[in-house]
Amino acid sequence: MTEYSVVGKPLPRVDGIAKLTGQAKYTTDIVLPNMVYGKLLRSPLPHAKIVSIDISKAEKLAGVEAVITGKDTWGIRYGFVDTPTYPAEERPLAEDKVRFVGEAVAAVAAVDPDIAEDALDLIEVEYDPLPAVFDPEEAMKDGAPQIHGEITRTTSCAWEDWGVARKSHSYTPINNVAGRVLISYGDIEKGFAEADHIREDRFWSPATSHMAMEPHTIVASYDPFTGRLEVWLNHMAYELKRYWLHKTLGIPIQKIRVHQTYIGGAFGGKAVIFDFEVLAGFISRKLGKPVKIELTREEVFSSCRNSIRFDTTLKTGVKKDGTIVAQHVKVIVDAGAYKGSAAVAMFLSHQFSEPCFNRRNVRHEGVGVYTNKNFGFAKRGHGAPQNRFAVDSQIDMICEDLGLDPVEVILKNLRKKGDILPNGDKLESYGLPKCVQLVADAIDWKQKRGKQRDKNRGVGIGINGMFSGSGYWPFACAAIVRLNHDGTITLMEGDCEFGQGADTTYSQIAAEELGLPLEDVNLISGDSELCPMNYSNFLSGGMFVGGGAVWYAAHDLRQKILKVGSELLKVKMEDLDLKNRTVFIKAKPEKSLTFGEILRYNVQKHLGDPLIGMGYKKAVPEIEFYPSLSKGTGRFTDAYGLAAATAEVEVDRETGRTKVLKICIADDCGYEINPASIYGQMVSQAVMGMGDALLEEVIDEGGRVINPNLVDYEIPRAFDVPEIVILNGCDYEPKGPFGGKEAGECARAAVIPAIANAIYDAVGVRVHRVPITPEKLLNALKVREGKK
Amino acid sequence: MDIAKKILKVNVNGRPYELLIKPKTTLLQFLRNDLGLTGAKQACMDNSCGACTVIVDKMAVKACSVLALQVNGREVMTVEGLASRDGKLHPLQQAFLDYHAFQCGFCTPGKLMSSKAMLDENPHPNEEEIRRDMEGNLCRCTGYTQYIEAIKAVAQKKEVAK
Q1: Domain total in chain B
Q2: Cβ B100–A21 below 8 Å, yes or no?
Q3: What residues of A are in contact with residue B138 (Cβ under 8 Å)?
Q4: Phi/psi at A173 (nearest 5 deg)?
């Protein structure tokens, strides 16, 4: 194996000094001269017509600079899903009616936030309440309140800009259906006919908050003389936000600049555009002044995207030995007032399953339904946590029915390295079998499974798969590496640093390829003006796509340096190597030239060329346009990240409280560019998954979120964290930078069923709805006692 | 409508300040908006996450839940005052760097100040004491493990530099 000196090392993060000294600038820290502060008035009703809005008193308040309503922004539409069949229907301010508690109905900008807040109180809105519907099955019935009328062709669609012809198209949802997916292969009836044992079970996953520490914030600054809009905001790929701002505000895309800031956590929740972001741009243009809008934590819970509510009915047929022969998945997604990414999540819950088990005959049906509630988006795994909770719980139940061992049954049903999935994706790297074995051994599976019920202790297992970027939009990245006079380099790449460690790992990749120490990399990242195209920082495409572009760019520069070196040292390129800002002859290391000498020579002899490397990478080279989400056909990713998790728990039968004793995760991220970073991602997912399994749910009553704060919505705290064991299940990915691929999202979904299954192993009852709270577990225990 | 501003005399990171402020200004607003010390962060607004933690005299305090006037005459230390002025990191900062004890970094200033106050009072806490003490500091990225290790490493070394 090649000996590396920069990649594969747990080097300190390059953003460390800034973040540890308080110097790192987040959007919330940005203050511009002449800046005004925006606040949003939000609907107190889940479903109502807006009869009138009187803003006259608010406008007269001293210090108020602008008050706008849906009349000002009428017709602006956007959404994550915006296709010819399903045009986007989100809007920055409600127009003729409100559809959920927390929907924005007016916005105010004032010279200070307190005045803006006071002005909100002076806005008088007259509502005419409409019947509301909160349950998706009720919403689908005839006669249910209809949440949307005609949804018209919209302003934000990216398709036509990338050359996809589309017809002008409007539609009216019927029975509140917001979207459907139907994916099938094999012969599902034949599969069930061949099965020796069939189970059908239903599982629910609630909305949960990403709970990124930084509440969503934007600063938008429009210059009326140049027509340029400068923004600082919470994002996960500036191309996305820039695109939506361009489309919704009608500002030419090249006149919008997203500035680099650090981002205080994202976990999927900050990739889409939000009402307040469009409004900040809108008001800034109206006033010709910078506008800052900082949301409260309550607004983040009630009005920003949470994870997607899944109701999954799962029918699985197996042979006596546990071999899966058919699986029929029926998903109902409670989409909320707008469709968000409901359709995408329903599809992904299928496709992330594909690299896990070979299920042979599959039918995956999903329906997303509008209800009068806040709507959802991707959260770390986007559909996988909800699906794995169902699938891996049911595998556990099947094993109980048949007297089989879940680890053996999982191993038996896994795909194999080199397999081509039904949609055409190939598993060129596949560490999942190794991961399963590693976590089973680490939890002492054979000694503990089914043998600790007398102590109310149990162990459980779960698995998962995840894309390394996908064929969504033109999911592609470019990077530039510039050789500097002193032999250091400047790396320009667009990914933003929201905690995942992109700045550090990309710098490591460039340094390794050019034989430089990490500190010789000067980094410019996350700025749409200074960096080339970048789409990779969501769907776990960072390392594989963004990091891949960096690798190719560094390689391009490496080749250029070697070429100049070979001219000067009069040897072949392959006889040279790079180390510590020099190019040298491998056989005679004393014969060397510094990068500075190389640069000077090349500028002098080659028409001023200062040596710049360029690289680019697309998530799936074969895809020109979108694959079909609704049918699940077409290639989706070039590499799957994979993970397995086991957990050990102890249940207190008196209180119903579950204490997690240990979580083990083995992850296949291809290659650990920075092992300390990978370790951090895994521990993070272990703890987040524990929160999902036991604690977290955004609870609403009558459409109103009743726990929109960190007192009533609990996330794990330092004292809750159990023993955590992280294991390396890597299988080298031939298409990834140094063999690397996805790492940040996969494992969370494996942890949830691992804990749920461990609870069953401990006390013999199963709760079909996460979070498995003490109340639910006590009820389940009581029901079982009653049956005895 | 307008309530008269009041004088606040306070020492922040070793420097004396005397400013006129609105009585309802929180310590966090004062530090961030009046002094431009943006290290302490606002994340929950209800005293439950610890991202705004600073040290007042010797006590870790959540700056979002204290009025600036309440620290009149006292000494406040923020994350900006932790490293020495010549650019040398405090041992806790160095340990956080070495152990990858942060990711997005938003809660990190608060954690650093909480753990400094803890170690100043109890230089050699055991792991349970560290976990108990850090319960008020929420973190969504790290899963806590690496920063507990970082604090342990500092605690095991010697006295923390004041």
Answers
A1: 2
A2: no
A3: 213, 710, 715, 717
A4: -60, 140
